[in-house]
């Protein structure tokens, strides 16, 4: 039993490192956005979904909700800060119409988080509290992993992976696989289900990347005004 817990802790630490890599993997994309002064055809969906997802998992991993899961809180706290920075860059370099949608989305997420915290701490106790928060975290985590579907749809339609960062896809796959293993050792369905789906989703993105990499025109027009902005493979990957 002690050996199993040690293995689980080691995997959890590895998961923290890999999750950090997943959170920072879109950095080249945002460097490109910063240089171009435009979000081009990149979508904020995955980053907005990840903000609420991280906030909820931070709450879930606290001892007042779920014991012996502090590693879940630590890495998601880091992820929350990183994703907030990315979304801020999106806001800065988007037009007002896109900014308005982002602000509305963020306000809705803040309201949802506040309601969940109030209900969990005032109306629920013990296993009921962890069950309630765990179910919601699972739903949100699935949403985070499915959010790139909008990007994958564009990849299939245009036969181009220019706006689907490779390193983010790879990080999603590896991250899902590691946390799936972590949750399976001391079976936690609220971690097993979403991370299992995340592993599959990341694998599908990698398959799409391999399929359409050869047909991608890396020099096609990218910004919202139709002006060509060259995006090197190193900036996308």
UniProtKB/TrEMBL annotation:
Mediates both low-affinity uptake and efflux of sugar across the membrane. Keywords: Membrane, Repeat, Sugar transport, Transmembrane, Transmembrane helix, Transport. One of its GO terms (cellular component) is plasma membrane. Belongs to the SWEET sugar transporter family. It is a multi-pass membrane protein. Pfam families: MtN3_slv (PF03083). It comes from Coffea arabica (Arabian coffee). The keyword Phosphoprotein does not apply. One of its GO terms (biological process) is protein homooligomerization. It is found in: Cell membrane; Endomembrane system. The chain crosses the membrane at residues 6-25, 46-64, 70-91, 103-124, 130-151, 163-185, 191-212. The keyword Transmembrane applies. InterPro entries: SWEET, SWEET_rpt. The gene is LOC113740815. This is Bidirectional sugar transporter SWEET. PANTHER family: BIDIRECTIONAL SUGAR TRANSPORTER SWEET5, RAG1-ACTIVATING PROTEIN 1. Its main location: membrane. GO terms for molecular function: sugar transmembrane transporter activity.
């Amino acid at each position: 039993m002690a050996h199993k817990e040690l293995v689980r802790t080691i995997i959890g630490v590895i998961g923290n490192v890999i999750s950090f890599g997943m959170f920072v993997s879109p950095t080249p994309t945002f460097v490109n956005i910063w240089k171009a002064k435009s979000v081009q055809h990149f979508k904020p969906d995955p980053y907005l979904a990840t903000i609420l997802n991280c906030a909820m998992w931070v709450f879930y991993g606290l001892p007042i909700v779920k014991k012996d899961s502090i590693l879940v809180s630590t890495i998601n706290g880091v992820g929350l800060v990183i994703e907030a920075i990315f979304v801020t860059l999106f806001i800065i370099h988007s037009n007002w119409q896109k900014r308005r949608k982002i602000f509305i989305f963020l306000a809705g997420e803040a309201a949802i988080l506040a309601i969940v915290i109030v209900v969990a701490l005032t109306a629920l106790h013990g296993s009921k509290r962890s069950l309630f928060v765990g179910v919601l975290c699972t739903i949100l985590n699935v949403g985070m992993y499915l959010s790139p579907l909008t990007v994958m749809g564009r990849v299939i339609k245009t036969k181009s992976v220019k706006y689907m960062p490779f390193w983010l896809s790879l990080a999603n796959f590896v991250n899902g696989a590691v946390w799936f293993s972590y949750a399976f050792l001391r079976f936690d369905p609220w971690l097993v289900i979403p991370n299992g789906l995340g592993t599959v989703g990341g694998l599908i993105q990698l398959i799409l990347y391999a399929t359409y990499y050869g047909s991608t025109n890396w020099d096609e027009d990218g910004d919202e005004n139709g002006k060509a902005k060259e995006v090197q493979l190193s900036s996308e990957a």
